[in-house]
What does this fold into?
Amino acid sequence: MISAKRGEGGGDIFPICTFIYKYCESLQAKRRSKMGISDVVVNELKIDPAFVLSPEFRPKPVEVLKELDGIPVIDLAPLLANDEKGTQIIVEQIAKASEEWGFFQLINHGIPIKLLDDVEVEALKFFSLPLEEKRKIRRTLEHPLGYFDTELTQNVRDWKEVFDFVTRGKLEFAAADGTLNVQENKWPESPPFLKDVCEAWKEATLGVAYKILELLTLSLGLPATYFNPLFDKEDTNFMRLNYYPPCPAPDLVLGVSGHKDSGALTVLVQDEVGGLEVRRKDGEWIRVKPRRDALIINVGDLFQVWSNDRYKSVEHRVVVNEHKERSSIPLFINPSNATNVFPIPELLDAQHPPKYRQYNWGDFLQALKTSHFKNMRVENIQISHLAINS
Ligand SMILES: O=C(O)CCC(=O)C(=O)O
Ligand SMILES: [Fe+2]
It folds into this structure.
């Protein structure tokens, strides 16, 4: 039997094989050297080059980082106490933070931290399972819920594992052949309480998320419930458990590459390890100092388009750690697939013409999910592609 094992000169049998093998090797070496990765690094650290970022996208060494309590902190206590004047001040704080940072933190939000402790413990049990176990509930392009460990952001592989579930329990969308595709959440058999603790955290954070959706809407001068019909019956919200394993080369990779969240808003919690970085207006990456008592809110692309650029969906990314694992839990608040997105007419006039063309949310989300799944070799879809005069 003829066998030609890669790397063992199998091509000696067929000179053409040697030629093709050498050619492929030289192409790979060229790509690596273009990206600034020497073969020594790849061989010694055993990092799959699919994870390695081009030098301009790599994280900065920690000593030159600015770590800020930085992004604005907003106290929700007056809202919970039904204090009208205090709530009006919160609305103003939200408007200012959304214009200047696109990010803010909420304290005194009323959610018991114990609920978060419980999710983190169960999530860690899940991510510690053997890969074959986790892959039993693996996400596919056709079934976009469950476990996934090969997500791409901007065509580079993220150093993370995720578990996704939709907050309504099932997701309905039009399949390529036009039929209705209905997918239910996939929960693992073990750990048995993962589902219960996730559901409890979901219920609690959804309450805050919809309150913030209304305050953001008010802050634009629109009636508080203006956008509610887009979310009422068929939202496409989903929650994600992010797990970032320790990484032998944290200076070459990212847990999540720079990106903007595409929905209306995101409610995020990160553990005490930290690693979330937000791009400030001046282009500087700012590390968000972990606060156990805070929910991080970021304004997504939808509010940028609805507000015709008054509010910004800001770029953010995740740096990983050489020695510590890290976890975070985002809840993405997304409207129904049928939603058409455009700058809100009430906010436009002759001096403020629309800056974006209308697009369909379901189509946008589908294109984005596909690009997270496989390398499309083009920039991921973004709202800047829909800007008028772009
Ligand atoms: O892990 C984090 O802190 C942020 C994750 C994130 O930005 C995302 O999942 O979209
Ligand atoms: Fe994000």
Remarks:
- Residues 1-14, 31-40 have pLDDT under 50 and may be disordered.
- The longest strand covers residues 326-333.
- DSSP finds ten helices and 19 strands in the chain.
